[in-house]
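Tokens as discussed.
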């Protein structure tokens, strides 16, 4: 028989326990149990809690039927037939007896009060996109948690690449890249970028993220897709479909949010018609984030209880316009205009003609959230000449309303 040696002389052997449908005993219903029980339930374990009392959260799990609660102190025999045990009471003598029973019954046992006396240790655990990260650093749980957090964060934000190597179905993800600052893309969006084989990017997407992609990733500038007899959008749709049918993981990287003046639905519809799965990842819209970055709240107590976002890519008198400028002029809230720099003179004239005060404050925020961001203030009456004098160019978000005067300028 092998001689029993102290734990400190050998590292723990890592293993993943498959506890679904198997009996697990938790002794003690305090804070330790509260932290550990959700993971055991998520693993499908048949959990029995033995404790005369429990925290409200643990009690709620028992009331909902997620665990079975035996309301008494530990007694010899409670660990019988268990595959795994967690001993976490404030009674050192009870913990020792339960641990001894686990040793006799050859049940892996974690002790919260004495790691050296335990036969198993609980690692610092995190999950991201089907990957479970478990870290053990001996007697330094804070270091374990720090290493776990660093790995999981890297997997989630895409800075730690962990590509799939088994076959997978082709897919397309329409990813909102946010207003321009690469740090403002969502965690999921960044992770999908890290998994992409092909990225079709808009010029308003967070360009800095493209430099982080591995060399094998094909990056396509959407503005430069040859479209011949096709409209540009049709050509983009076709490119998405062709690469997905070739078995590639395709990310369509857009600025802002895919469904806020981004033609995302047109692409989603084309993919659906081609029978290709499509994931839509929302992005931070520039209509809110860019004013915020410039120190402008789109709503503020006592100033604006509403905000309206409209496209300014066509003038108010253009027959293609779907915007009711007359109604907008009567609103008391904030008006945010996207893609309207070259039409702002005509837009201001229309708003004033329909009753908006000429002195209404206005701000143009160019290249919002990037290093080149700048804010130019004006009024409805002066904005046309201000845009020319200050050489304001797209992309810029235009904010109209009293919120422009709220707070410090940035």
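Sequence:
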């Amino acid at each position: 028989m092998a001689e029993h040696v102290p734990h400190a002389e050998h590292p723990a052997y890592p293993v993943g326990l498959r506890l679904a449908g198997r009996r697990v005993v938790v002794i003690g219903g305090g804070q330790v149990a509260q932290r550990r029980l959700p993971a055991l339930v998520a693993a499908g374990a048949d959990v029995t809690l033995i404790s005369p009392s429990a925290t409200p959260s643990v009690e709620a799990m028992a009331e909902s039927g997620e665990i079975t609660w035996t309301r008494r102190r530990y007694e010899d025999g409670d660990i019988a037939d268990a595959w795994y045990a967690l001993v976490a009471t404030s009674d050192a003598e009870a913990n020792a007896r339960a641990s001894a029973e686990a040793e006799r019954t050859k049940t892996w046992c974690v002790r919260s009060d004495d790691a050296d006396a335990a036969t198993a240790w609980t690692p610092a655990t995190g999950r991201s996109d089907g990957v479970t990260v478990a870290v053990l650093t001996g007697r330094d749980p804070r270091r374990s948690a720090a290493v776990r957090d660093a790995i999981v964060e890297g997997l989630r934000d895409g800075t730690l690449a962990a590509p799939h190597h088994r076959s997978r179905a082709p897919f397309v993800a329409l990813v909102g890249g946010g207003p321009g600052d690469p740090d403002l893309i969502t965690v999921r969006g960044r992770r999908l970028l890290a998994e992409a084989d092909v990225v079709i990017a808009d010029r308003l997407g967070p360009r800095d993220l493209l430099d982080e992609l591995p060399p094998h990733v094909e990056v396509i500038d959407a503005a430069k897709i040859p479209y011949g007899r096709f409209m540009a959008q049709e050509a983009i749709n076709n490119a998405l479909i062709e690469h997905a049918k070739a078995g590639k993981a395709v990310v369509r990287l857009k600025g802002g949010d895919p469904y806020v003046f981004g033609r995302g639905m047109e692409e989603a519809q084309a993919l659906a018609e081609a029978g290709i799965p499509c994931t839509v990842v929302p992005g931070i819209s520039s209509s809110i984030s860019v004013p915020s970055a410039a120190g402008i709240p789109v709503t503020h107590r006592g100033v604006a209880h509403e905000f309206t976002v409209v496209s300014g890519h066509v003038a108010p008198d253009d027959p293609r316009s779907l915007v009711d400028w007359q109604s907008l002029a009567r609103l008391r809230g904030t008006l945010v205009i996207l893609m309207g720099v070259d039409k702002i003179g005509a837009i201001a004239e229309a708003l004033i003609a329909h009753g908006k005060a000429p002195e209404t404050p206005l701000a143009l925020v160019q290249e919002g959230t990037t290093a080149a961001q700048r804010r130019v203030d004006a009024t409805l009456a002066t904005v046309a000449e201000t845009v020319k004098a200050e050489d304001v160019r797209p992309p810029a978000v235009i904010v109209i309303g009293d919120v422009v005067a709220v707070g410090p300028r940035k």
